[in-house]
Amino acid sequence: MAVVGDSELVEQATQGRFEAFEALVERYQHRVYGLAKRLLRDEHEAADVAQETFLAVWQHLDEYRPPEANGVGTDASPTPLQAWILTIAANASLGRLRKRKVRQTHEAPRLRAEAKGESLVEAVPDLAPSAETTVLTEELRRAIESAAQSLSAEFREVFLLRDIEGFSYEDVAQTTGLTLANVKTRLHRARLAMRAALVNFYEEKVA
Amino acid sequence: MSTCQACVELLREYLDGELDFGTHEELSGHLKKCSTCDEFLKSYSAMPKLCREALAEQMPQDLAHNLRAFLRARAQKF
To answer: What is the C-alpha separation between B68 and B59, in angstroms, rounded?
Structure first.
């Protein structure tokens, strides 16, 4: 059965067909919820963000102007509509984060992303025999979750938006208010920190 | 590329095609000769996909149901 493209659903939804809008919600609800939960680390707040996001989408759908929106997208490269929806969700999530002002002193020690000097070279040992074909075990999944949660907020936001949500560098910069250069620097540091955490994971398994 | 340290610092720019021709060639040459850095590059570039899979979330059914009910109720007001 052919998959109805985003642009067709948008057109039908803007003409008042709520079922078409619901089809869009169903298509992107997991991505929106996942983005919010990863950023906020709270499933209730993530559900609230999903509500806010799709309500805003419903209210402003007629303002949406797709460059070339007719696909269903992939995890790595979102369709224009998906990118638009995820940007709304990211803004809502980051807005909540900014309001929290949570002191982080009681939290687990942060991964140090400043992987410079000798520590970088120490992290050079391979992550796995062949990282490209690494099988995602439940244990590894938990290690990655833990590593991502341990990134400091300034690195985590950039890492999640770029590497997990597939935002362009420009969109990450716009959403976070950072300069493009800062986004790229933070992303590299975050990746190095994530990689170092996974190297530790494998080393502990071997030990 | 004088050191592995310098090589690692440039990996993102290398993968994103942001390096000038000379630096790109120098780094490529280093990666061909240095298996440690080559392996580092492989794991570094494999990281996003692995993390995307690991961090994928499904919205729980009850929350998805609540979302649908919320949107239906709000949409009727417009």
So the answer is: 12
Q: How far apart are CA A202 and CA B16, in angstroms?
A: 28
Which two structure tokens, joined as six digits, stand for A3?
């998959």
Beta strands in chain B (DSSP E): none
Tell if the pTM clears 0.90, that is, is over it.
no
At A164, list the tokens: 């997990």
Instruction: In whole angstroms, give the CA distance from residue B66 to residue A113.
Output: 39
Q: What ipTM does the predicted assembly reach?
A: 0.89
Q: Which tokens is A20 given?
A: 């078409």
Tens of pLDDT along B22-57? 999 999 999 999 999 999 999 999 999 999 999 999
Residues belonging to chain B with any Cβ–Cβ distance to chain A shorter than 8 Å: 4-5, 8-9, 11-13, 36-37, 39-40, 42-44, 46-60, 63-64, 66-68, 70-72, 74-75, 78
Alpha helices in chain A (DSSP H): 6-14, 18-40, 43-60, 80-100, 117-122, 138-150, 153-159, 169-176, 180-206
Q: Please identify which residue in the block is written with the tokens 């986004």.
A: A183
The single-letter DSSP state of residue A129 is: T
